[in-house]
Recover the amino acids of this structure.
């Protein structure tokens, strides 16, 4: 549980049947919660974890895909890199975007000329891009229990197709199944390799994987 927090924004959505709230975190970025589930890594702090994940792709250049916008923290961090031309970021839940627009940290992303935010499921959006369009992909999806489709073989094949040869994919995985003894990470690595990624490396500092095409 987040301690010493205050609720910055909250509402219930009849459309999704979920309760949304943005809470302050002392010394860190605000945390988005959806029906009580925190949408950010809390172990090392939200800001620190976002920086570590983005750093895994450095040097980042050209066109970058940010698959799951959330509160736009990663999109903003990626856009700071001088070699990045543009960041395409997708969010299927309009309620999440509504909160981002009132979030003091993330609302500036909507005015950033290097970031294009679209209210659309990433699995649908990828079908609109030509093969090899992106130079790098940043994939920080909700947990596999919530968004299993974003960990599927079919989805990884879409990411592989959208990435240029020599491009890099960072995939946040966290530590799913750790308490129950299940190794979800092993399955993710196997599916990424089956999709065509020639090398998949674990990045412990960022709790994720770096896949190379």
């Amino acid at each position: 549980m987040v301690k010493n927090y205050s609720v910055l924004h909250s509402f219930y959505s009849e459309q999704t049947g979920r309760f949304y709230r943005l809470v302050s975190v002392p010394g860190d970025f605000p945390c988005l919660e959806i029906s009580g589930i925190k949408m950010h890594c809390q172990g090392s702090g939200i800001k620190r974890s976002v920086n570590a994940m983005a750093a895994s792709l450095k040097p980042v250049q050209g066109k970058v895909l940010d698959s799951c916008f959330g509160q736009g923290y990663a999109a903003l961090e990626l856009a700071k890199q001088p070699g990045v031309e543009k960041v395409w970021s997708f969010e299927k839940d309009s309620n999440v975007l509504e909160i981002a627009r009132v979030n003091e940290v993330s609302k500036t992303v909507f005015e950033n000329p290097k970031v294009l935010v679209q209210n659309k499921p990433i699995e649908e959006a990828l079908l609109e891009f030509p093969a090899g369009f992106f130079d790098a992909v940043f994939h920080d999806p909700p947990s596999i229990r919530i968004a299993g489709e974003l960990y599927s073989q079919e989805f990884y094949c879409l990411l592989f197709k959208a990435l240029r040869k020599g491009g890099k994919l960072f995939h946040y995985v966290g530590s799913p199944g750790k308490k129950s003894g299940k190794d979800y990470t092993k399955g993710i690595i196997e599916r990424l390799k089956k999709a065509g990624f020639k090398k998949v490396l674990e990045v412990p500092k960022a709790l994720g994987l770096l896949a190379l095409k």
